[in-house]
């Protein structure tokens, strides 16, 4: 049922059997390269849509306040839209705006037929009720896939969500496009957030992996993780996953991105993942780097969801 | 964080360490007894509601066709309603009825203020679209908790489903009322149906267990199950789980009910679970029997959900 994954074959020649290994180096899963390929296919699809029906997909982003990280994420998303030929619009609201202000912005995008996807950049300031705001999004424009009805449809067998949340979808795309079998493999998801951990579990299970979810209350995360063929980490703790946590030959997808001050780096900081890369690279058969792994895929999946939303709206295939 | 479960203490005196053990017998989790206690408390709550506001909860059941097992389940549910003072109404439709016929019945119950819970007895005949029918149920009357929005709210942290599906809720109530800690324990759910396996996973995770889901594509279900402190089986395969699958001292909740012909039994058949009871009882610290384990709890939870729905409708607490 499950052949050897292509990337794992590369590695098994060097007979990985114990940790620390003797200099084995895992294949790097190049998220940027894979995402670039997806984005260029999206751009050509957008071009085909424009040529055929004179319409392009449109994404609206609602951002509240001026968090530096959120600004960077939003800028990257909008830049990626532009490069793919997707229209993007930003509604930037002040930090002390009311829930009604956001709902008004949201409603105007809901009523705008040139907007096919709407995303509310999270986290919101504490005085705002995230649940109420996200519930106000129509399913058809919820390109982040965070609506509970969408999540329920992702969870239930025989149902189809309109959108799969971008980061989990990106993680699984990385596995698939790297030739890694998921069906029947043992997977561990570290973290159970609504945005990453939970939908990643649901998606891996849809692909017929046998999945365990490790979280803050798990007593022996290291032991459980060491049994997995596939590990997806979204723990939010830099360098949490050491080499000793990994089964030799495992495939590791690292969702963590933690800026750490570093005056030697261009921007004064560098990014760390949840996984201790230098150790993991000696044990795993394949793993994603940080940066350049999951991050670019999240953006590519957002473009892909927005394109899908527009195709659905225009009944264009 | 996690003390020894009360039932496990009973057993550990006999130093369970390997399988087969020397005659150790697990504590039986008496679902019937626990369910009887819950039902009698529900009956007194219904009495209090009637005395205070002159209203009682009402449950409507929609049954299509004449499956023998469904008839038994429905009869048991309605009998339990009667005993608790809850009104129950049955709409029995012929096997060849149309989707519209069902939707019409459903709508009439939706519009009836004396009905607070509606359940569609599953499975439906193949010509009917179960998804479309279940989606037509309002969240407020979905006492089975099978609506995808309800499931999404069960899955997501920080959200609250209006109803928790009856069987999973019954399983977790059995654990809690038997003094078994869930938080931080390792749990395995065998099976991933929308009705039992999936919501049981979601509910155990809400209680902070570390949960793995075993299903038909799992390669080594025995090995994974043997690591669990808590095992919930809803596999639909009689006697699947042998003693060798279990960790000594584990707690086992058996959702399976398989009628097996047996001329020596009163009704010409007897019920088997997913678990080989005679073997499991020598390894586990506590387990549910079949019948008399989860079954009675499912009914008690249906009454409890119906009472909750009525309290919500009348703003009665």
From TrEMBL, chains A, B:
Q: Where does the UniProt annotation place the signal sequence?
A: 1-18
What SUPFAM superfamilies does this protein map onto? Aminoacid dehydrogenase-like, N-terminal domain, NAD(P)-binding Rossmann-fold domains
Q: What HAMAP family does the record point to?
A: THF_DHG_CYH
Q: Which InterPro entries match?
A: Aminoacid_DH-like_N_sf, NAD(P)-bd_dom_sf, THF_DH/CycHdrlase, THF_DH/CycHdrlase_cat_dom, THF_DH/CycHdrlase_CS, THF_DH/CycHdrlase_NAD-bd_dom
EC no.? 3.5.4.9
Say if the entry is tagged with keyword Membrane. Answer: no
Q: What class of enzyme is it?
A: hydrolase
Residue intervals of the Tetrahydrofolate dehydrogenase/cyclohydrolase catalytic domain: 29-144
Give start-end ranges for the coiled-coil region(s): none
Protein name in UniProt: methenyltetrahydrofolate cyclohydrolase
User: Has keyword RNA-binding?
Assistant: no
Domain Tetrahydrofolate dehydrogenase/cyclohydrolase NAD(P)-binding: from-to ranges: 165-313
Pfam families for the chain: THF_DHG_CYH, THF_DHG_CYH_C
Q: What keywords are assigned to this protein? A: Hydrolase, Multifunctional enzyme, One-carbon metabolism, Oxidoreductase, Signal
Gene it is expressed from: LOC115752466
Q: Which residues cross the membrane?
A: none
